[in-house]
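Table S4 entry, Rhodopsin domain-containing protein.
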Amino acid sequence: MVKSVPIENSGQVGILVASSVSIFIAALSVGLRLLAKRISSRFDYSDYCIIAALVWNCALHACCMLLVTHGGFGFHTQEIYTRFGPDTATFFFKGIMAFALLWNATVCFSKLSVLLMYTALIPVRSMVVWARRIGALVILWNLGDIIGGFLICRPLARNWNFTIKGTCGSQPNYYFAMGIINIITDVFIIVLPIPYLYRLHLSMRKKMIAMALLSIGIMTWVITIYRQTTLPGLDFTDMTYDGVLATLLSGLEPAVAIVLACIPLLRPLFGSHKLKENTSSKYGYRSGGGSELYSKKGMTKSGNREFQELEDDNDDSGSQVELKPHTQMASATSLRRQLSTRPLLLRRGGT
């Protein structure tokens, strides 16, 4: 059994604090998001994905804490062997492989949640098609990252036992390349809704607000790019000490991504769900409805779902921009039919 390692340096403390904060802010954000969705609409697939991302995020940071408390993370590798024994070092290098798997799962589900949120907010065929394509790219990239991480050293045990014969590829270069693909998928996800938002019948100020709400994921780029700069010079043979900063940033990135994926949907918590029925209908969204992701119901014959453009009649009154899942509304034709039949019903009731 691997013994616990004493907390003696700032690197260990930094990882423990960062992991604790990452779990807290992600859990708080998802909790607030679910509360907001309960107020304004039903849960949809984007919510289930963000819950899955939260679960994986908690597992990721639990793993990170164990690397510190039982794997000697924060000490030089040679010091771990001499002070705590080879079992502690083996625990760390096996744990860092588990960390990579959990990281990919967390990032994958957080990005899929954002894409599903897009299709709920803007349910038009072209958006759904592009969201599916980018989602497929995200899944394939994460699967490739996991498989490549396990195969980069042959045999597999070479990842945690450097004394056995075998070969390893350039791990810093590999993870740097995977990080570049990560940034590319982020660019696709952030740019995707902008053309649709730009075509809305809103003032430019409100268009910019809506774009900003759906583009705040750009903040993760700061973390990702900074982490990328640390990878080329990373010494994987002394990963227990040299990889503290890169691992800390890697753990922080998906937690921040979860938070940013929740922010656009928190508006109902500030009272905007108390809009009048006619106002919410005019804007093409209804507070009590849920999303209709990938369903044929509500589609036209051509396969395109009707997209309600927003009319900004209340711009001068300081009306707020709120993002809610789209639901079907009664068409103007059906309303006219109901009104036209009302006099006939009254005549029948009077005879």
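The mean pLDDT is 80.
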